[in-house]
Amino acid sequence: MSVEYQNVRIVQTDRTIEKGSVLFEEGEIRNVSDSPLNRGDTVIDGEGLSLFPGFIDVHIHGANGHDVMDATPEALQGIAEILPEEGTTSFLATTMTQSPENIERALHNVGSFTGENVKGAEMLGVHLEGPFISGKKAGAQPVDYIREPSVTKFETYRKASNDTIRLVTLAPEEKGGEELIRHLKARGIIASMGHTDATFDEAEAAVEAGVSHVTHLYNQMSGLHHRDPGVTGAAFTDPRLMVELIVDHIHSRKEAVGIAYRQLTDKRTLLITDAMRAKCLPEGTYDLGGQDVTVKNQKAILEDGTLAGSILTLSKAASLMKKHLHLSDQELLAITSGNAAGELGVGHRKGGIAPGKDADLVLVDDEFNVHATWCRGELVYERKE
């Protein structure tokens, strides 16, 4: 069955069609037009709303009571099925520092998860966050399980995941860091600096070795200092780095987000949530890697006050970026999907509205409230008025 949106703002990478039409069938976009096509079996009037490519979250641990580290098909299914409510149609299942056995169990689960018969977001692979990080910048990652970067151990994890690891967060200054970075680059896997106390010079050396990504800017990394700009400074100044931002105005004040965006622009920014299982649930106490996390006033914190991920949605992050920085449609498209699709090598089918791409679409109003989400041509979320 073919579906046609008419009379809708269509946000493309290079322009916005104010009253256009999009036709899709069999999970794929067939046509985009400035005027009605009148070819859909089902025709939907999108007047007053905007159609964006479905959002892509490259850093999410869990949602709606589920966590990737639960290591069950039900957990991955639960995450995939809830994400379209915020407009997310693709994601990387993100692990965390835990015992080798628990990490391998979670990776085995992800590697065997096909997503068949799941009405929801598409899992594009794994973001391995830890255990190859710095104890000085552990944050909510359990210090007892942190390990030095190791090619041998990484290969164990890669095989356990059925070769689905797409991104690895590590501390490049730790012993074995450069060797692992070079190994990841040779395998076509994104190496990211995160949970790291690297100096600016160490960060730049890591980029030369193959690092191309920065995990949750500002958080759990060496900060900007006028005599050592640290990893934050490298993220600002090195055009080879794509940079994650958690825009909830909790992990970083809105002024800090503005400073970062002026350096990064829409060319290098990726909005992420770093969300944990409490997302979409009431305030209370939840588990994160065997640790109690209290969620109150939109904050998720450990007993000692350390931030432990977020309960942020990508639609909320996009709304805040639009409201406070007055971003254009094309900037918002880039930071919610286009940049992630390009970095993950799926830009031929994700991150844009054009013939031949997946019909991953999100219908939003001016405040970025999600009205409908389509995953590969299937309506999986529709807002109830």
Summarize the structure.
Pfam families: Amidohydro_1 (PF01979). This protein is 26% helix and 29% strand. A hairpin with a 2-residue loop joins strand 16 (284-288) and strand 17.
Give a verbal description of the structure.
With 385 residues, this protein is of the alpha/beta class. Helix content is 26%, strand content 29%. It contains nine helices and 21 strands. Strands 1, 2, 3, 4, 5, 19, 20 and 21 form an eight-stranded mixed sheet that branches. An eight-stranded parallel sheet has the order 6-9-10-11-12-13-14-15. Strands 16-17-18 form a three-stranded antiparallel sheet, with no helix packed on it. The protein is globular, with a radius of gyration of 20 Å. It starts with a strand and ends with a strand. The model has no long low-confidence stretch (mean pLDDT 96).
